[in-house]
Amino acid sequence: MPGIELPEITKKLLAAKEAKGVSFSDLEAAVGRDEVWIAAVIYRQASASEEEATKIVNALGLGGDIASELMACPVKGLGPLVPTDPLIYRFYEIMQVYGMPIKDVVHEKFGDGIMSAIDFTIDVEKEEDPKGDRVKIIMSGKFLPYKKW
Amino acid sequence: MPGIELPEITKKLLAAKEAKGVSFSDLEAAVGRDEVWIAAVIYRQASASEEEATKIVNALGLGGDIASELMACPVKGLGPLVPTDPLIYRFYEIMQVYGMPIKDVVHEKFGDGIMSAIDFTIDVEKEEDPKGDRVKIIMSGKFLPYKKW
Amino acid sequence: MPGIELPEITKKLLAAKEAKGVSFSDLEAAVGRDEVWIAAVIYRQASASEEEATKIVNALGLGGDIASELMACPVKGLGPLVPTDPLIYRFYEIMQVYGMPIKDVVHEKFGDGIMSAIDFTIDVEKEEDPKGDRVKIIMSGKFLPYKKW
Amino acid sequence: MPGIELPEITKKLLAAKEAKGVSFSDLEAAVGRDEVWIAAVIYRQASASEEEATKIVNALGLGGDIASELMACPVKGLGPLVPTDPLIYRFYEIMQVYGMPIKDVVHEKFGDGIMSAIDFTIDVEKEEDPKGDRVKIIMSGKFLPYKKW
Amino acid sequence: MPGIELPEITKKLLAAKEAKGVSFSDLEAAVGRDEVWIAAVIYRQASASEEEATKIVNALGLGGDIASELMACPVKGLGPLVPTDPLIYRFYEIMQVYGMPIKDVVHEKFGDGIMSAIDFTIDVEKEEDPKGDRVKIIMSGKFLPYKKW
Amino acid sequence: MPGIELPEITKKLLAAKEAKGVSFSDLEAAVGRDEVWIAAVIYRQASASEEEATKIVNALGLGGDIASELMACPVKGLGPLVPTDPLIYRFYEIMQVYGMPIKDVVHEKFGDGIMSAIDFTIDVEKEEDPKGDRVKIIMSGKFLPYKKW
Amino acid sequence: MPGIELPEITKKLLAAKEAKGVSFSDLEAAVGRDEVWIAAVIYRQASASEEEATKIVNALGLGGDIASELMACPVKGLGPLVPTDPLIYRFYEIMQVYGMPIKDVVHEKFGDGIMSAIDFTIDVEKEEDPKGDRVKIIMSGKFLPYKKW
Amino acid sequence: MPGIELPEITKKLLAAKEAKGVSFSDLEAAVGRDEVWIAAVIYRQASASEEEATKIVNALGLGGDIASELMACPVKGLGPLVPTDPLIYRFYEIMQVYGMPIKDVVHEKFGDGIMSAIDFTIDVEKEEDPKGDRVKIIMSGKFLPYKKW
Amino acid sequence: MPGIELPEITKKLLAAKEAKGVSFSDLEAAVGRDEVWIAAVIYRQASASEEEATKIVNALGLGGDIASELMACPVKGLGPLVPTDPLIYRFYEIMQVYGMPIKDVVHEKFGDGIMSAIDFTIDVEKEEDPKGDRVKIIMSGKFLPYKKW
Amino acid sequence: MPGIELPEITKKLLAAKEAKGVSFSDLEAAVGRDEVWIAAVIYRQASASEEEATKIVNALGLGGDIASELMACPVKGLGPLVPTDPLIYRFYEIMQVYGMPIKDVVHEKFGDGIMSAIDFTIDVEKEEDPKGDRVKIIMSGKFLPYKKW
After folding, report:
1. Which range marks the domain in which residue B116 is found?
2. What's the domain count of chain J?
3. What is the ipTM score, two decimals?
């Protein structure tokens, strides 16, 4: 995808993950954090504590010297202006199509403000369904009301 | 926000909604559909059946002649390339920051494919929390595996 | 400036403000809120309570029927992708030049997270100086640490 | 973040800073200049005098031969058109949302002109607050009135 | 073409294909899959099963260790925002010129929904014609009706 | 969708078509041309002969004075740079994902050249399928070999 | 030129100027300011004092009630991202081609800093030349050295 | 600055220039051409004759084999669409703010046509001023009237 | 085509031209100028003398009061960044594909410089050919060598 | 120019061409094809037959093993969205200014359709002229009428 260039550390971790056959849910079990968050650490979109970083690196069978790289506060945001990967694009499309409806419903329920993307969690679940399994994404972000001054 | 221009029908419905003091959850009760979906119909991002359209229009105290406009298949997508509204932008940011991590986790759980944005539902809930209420967004999209041929 | 189109209500309020010779600091005194925030309400970048809206409208000598428009949660963000107005562009330039330095200093002082632009205030002050008066901008935003999950 | 590529010298200095455990406020003490400005020198967004450059390099335990690179007038501006990093983006958002209100208030206080981003200082402070610490950003730029001719 | 950078694995496979004089239709025969899909695997726009990957690699006379790279779920989308290659651009042009007409005809035949680009096949055929051979492209995508909720 | 503005004549024809309950396949029968081509004429992406224009206008119950507008050579291309409508976007996605594979297969079958988008036809068919109906798109464009000189 | 939309007041003044046959140098004589600056006022890129505004309006034979519009601090910047008008584009080209050379020469003569575009004048002169007259543009902007803090 | 990548030859010449402590005005004296033009040759925005190239290379103490690289007709234009460097940006801003006023004044003085950016010279001078030195830029371009045919 | 908005005067002239059944080559005969240039005047991309304007207006059967609008120096450039109309796009494609080859050949024949687009003529001819008629475009622009100074 | 990156083979051929002092018209004589087309092959914008490729490579004194690279069907289009090189930009400008006039004249002479950029030749000639030599560009493209179906 034009515009995505993974950091060296990310490539190294993903290669080790593949070579060792470790899944993200294995990492979830080993680290005690959600797999999406761990993936975000690996993609350098989130920063880990020393303990978390060590656990991730260990679980992937890599030397502890790499751990510190996962503790740095990364420059975040991976993609190009409009993503070309179909899986990622669907989130862009959801924002384009349902952005205003969500906005209105949130304002009605909470008043003027936003859903935080920082005090925020996101889970990905598999919903088995005879008509075809479903991807369930659960986002939970603190409502932040606009401050007046 | 530069790039957003609402259709006339949307403005008329929102004005009626405000004037009559009808909330989206009132509409949910009246129509028997989720409030986000109804908001999507009003913003001309989704199309209603005749019965649904009539219920929406009636609930807003408008004449039934408007109903047919809500039944047309709209040209979808409301916003500019990168949204400037902070609430909507946070979804863009989530895609930028968590897009690749989600992609990897979905592929691990389901194989190569995507979460449909068409066979798709989205709910907005208020999660009460003493440390500050939270916005909960639940997306559920059918997993579509890539077809080989 | 290409890309800026003011809402009708904003034009009406600014015209009344000019015609009546009311300054933003007059509005500050009349409403009991900071002048920048009041300007943001007028430009439909912030929403007022009924009391605040009424005070603004009254101070500008306009009928109270307009007040409700100032209470709606606006679609925010006024400008084009890159602003062409020199005064506004300087803020873009500051972000381009000092963005990374600020980021590093904030991370060092606070850890991984951001300065909120929602739980946020901004003041504009005139600093008299014999070598040329200075514009002082004071931003204060709550630090939001990244949540882990 | 797509579009940000740090110069070699910046990477070398940041690595040394991390390895030696030197903070920006240590550098502030060692150099006698504000930490944001020093960070700007390191990110090659500002140029140092020979004395300042030598102090920075020494404080990071690096050889003096690097110092001259910090004295060159850099090509400034680090980021992409619209920043994807959430911390930096918030400044873009502030410009989008509060740009016009600030513009009007500045014009009212000073007349037609701008806040200089060159004869300009910026400070980042930590404001302790029981409800959550706050990031305080203080900008001070000389007001430059438009010359007529 | 600005914006297209092929992965190393793609370059290696295309070089082997050229060196060995293997055509895409040879690959079609060897793998038992359509040549366009196989080309998509080689360009890392689709993922193969172990058996398919091995067959592709073998047919190109390369070692099996490369096969696993073809099984990974790729980040998809090769080109720049607007393609400059004339052959690829024509598809962009078809979308620009016939996009709305197709949309209307699809809606009339199927209702509100889309043609899936995931549950999707595409064939390229040569139509011999005395007035000049023709390229025939046959797309077949599952119709996905918008879900209501 | 930002960037799409239909010509007045298009709006008038579509409104008449809806009011009269005429389908595109009714028009196909009345005009003796494919429904996609007729839709392209109505969207002002193709030009009709006098006879064709008259038949279209008559079938929609409109006065013949409008017919001449359908005979003019239109400025073609309806959408924004990247379409936001999901149905139209899928064609953009197909170009992003399958553009290079198609290019290679076409070159292998035909040599260096392109599929014409002018000496070109496109059909939309409904493929009934118990697992879900399918949209079938058949494009046929003359192969144009690059001329050497 | 796409992206340029003149304000109503500008159109009115230019029409009056044309109708009355007043040239910019006539205005220069009438107002006692440079013709480029006066043109900038008319295009709403600069703000006039009451006296200047009145002189401009009078010279164009228009009523004084328009004068106040020329006194407002305008939102500046007229054109699209990249200008299409050949005369204006040449200035963009000069920046593209000579931007870095000028930057280096300015830094060598003045140190790190910029030429102000606010404390700035610009003159347009006709240089008669037997080989073809020449356009002479003289810019004079205060050098602003970067402040350190 | 994103988008600026200097050619190898430019880096080599600038490094030699810095190492030897040669200024652009030294080069002006050595070559007998204006320093801005010489800087343009070094940045590969202009092409030198063999004699000029040799003089430049000699003055920088480099071997004559490099000279021929300065004689090639370069692909010109260094920067990104909108420059981020503040010094260069000011020229973009001048074009945005004063582009239309200059256009009108030029047309009034010369008729329809442009100032050539090819038959063109540009000088940078230092204007000493007790209130702060000024940067003076003098452009002189041949007026090219539009040909009619 | 998104981004093209014709001036009122252009629409009026084109409507008159169509109503009266006057072709561009009729106008060529009536005005004594090439039809492309006349079309450029009508599209407000070129300016006419009083005599030429009057002839154009007369030939279209319109009142002489319109003539003066054709004498003004227009803001030139009609289209969006990348044209979507297939006929116009082909010129963009020719520039993309043959731009560098033409550049090299011109430099070899003429030295460093450009083909003027101002001292420039363009003719469109029909070349009859049994294998299909051809469009012949002949451009002739003065070579402008780069001035040194 | 940002966005142009030449393939390795192109750089090698251009270097050999320069080293050997071979001109494009020498190549024209040696290959029996037009120099612009040969330059297009070298820039990898066109594909040669084995015989043509061998002649080109031989004329440049390079080994025949390179020839096959010139026979591959290239990914075409060299430049950025809007070219910054002044010579190439003029073709963009011609398209912006004369695009619509050419379109109308072509439609009038030929009906609805386009000039092919594939069944297309382009010649560059030097027109000697005492008032300054002229660059003559002759394009000849087959007219392709829109097919109806």
Report:
1. 86-145
2. 2
3. 0.95
